[in-house]
Recover the amino acids of this structure.
């Protein structure tokens, strides 16, 4: 690939909203949702396919989108972000933004970059160690992935831990871990995963599967339902022995914002 191949990327959406997950919930951000993902998760609620155009909501919360032809160049994206004011940071999400690490490297924005990643592509993560200020890293437990064999599970876990090591917290970067919890999540699996990344993160977020709206009995497409309050509280209590652990649902799904 040449350098010119990295100056554009397939982007699904660009909009302004508030962060709905993790310890920075409620902060105002511009969101850049990249197309494409390297995983197939049971609980995924995001349309990250590339339809050939990028949906651009210039007026936040308006629901009015302009269609921008894909791929989007670095210059185009920087101009699209310019109208958004009073931002905490720019969220790079997906899909999986690390698939487009070379493109992200070339961005020249005044605002901090907030990476939302599945943390499974260490060679791509290595390219952004000096670029991102916030890392919202998912730890995708193997049981949540479709069609993955035992050897692939081991590699998946190793790659995830390595990504957290590469993008670990330091004096200029916060890195935290989110783990989706449903009624089939096993305490032992979560504990083992957290123990492996404790040196690299500031806190762990247990994220109950959150249905749209307030109907907690709502079945998700995967057939799973929310974990019980008791089981989540027990899991949090156990993890608090080793790291700051918080329970934060997907708040944006509760009030219907992007």
């Amino acid at each position: 690939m040449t350098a010119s191949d990295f100056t554009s990327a397939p982007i699904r959406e660009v909009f302004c909203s508030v962060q709905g997950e993790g310890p920075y919930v409620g902060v105002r951000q511009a969101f850049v949702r990249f197309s494409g993902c390297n995983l197939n998760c049971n609980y995924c609620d995001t349309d990250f396919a590339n339809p050939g155009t990028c949906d651009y909501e210039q007026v936040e919360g308006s629901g009015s989108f302009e269609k921008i032809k894909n791929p989007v160049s670095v210059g185009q994206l920087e101009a699209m972000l310019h109208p958004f004011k009073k931002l905490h940071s720019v969220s790079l999400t997906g899909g999986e933004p690390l698939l487009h690490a070379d493109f992200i490297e070339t961005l020249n924005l005044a605002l901090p970059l907030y990476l939302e990643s599945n943390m499974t592509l260490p060679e791509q993560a290595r390219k952004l160690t000096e670029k991102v200020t916030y890392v919202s890293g998912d730890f995708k437990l193997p049981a949540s992935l479709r069609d993955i064999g035992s050897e692939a599970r081991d590699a998946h876990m190793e790659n995830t831990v390595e990504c957290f090591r590469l993008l670990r917290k330091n004096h200029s970067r916060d890195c935290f871990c989110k783990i989706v919890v449903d009624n089939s999540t096993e305490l032992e699996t979560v504990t083992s995963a957290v123990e492996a990344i404790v040196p690299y993160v500031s806190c762990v977020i247990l994220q109950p599967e959150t249905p749209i709206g307030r109907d907690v009995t709502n079945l998700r497409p995967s057939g799973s339902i929310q974990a019980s309050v008791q089981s989540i509280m027990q899991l949090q209590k156990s993890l608090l022995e080793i790291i700051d652990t918080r329970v934060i649902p997907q708040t944006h799904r509760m009030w219907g914002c992007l």
Summary: The first helix runs from residue 74 to 81. The mean pLDDT is 88. The longest strand covers residues 11-18.
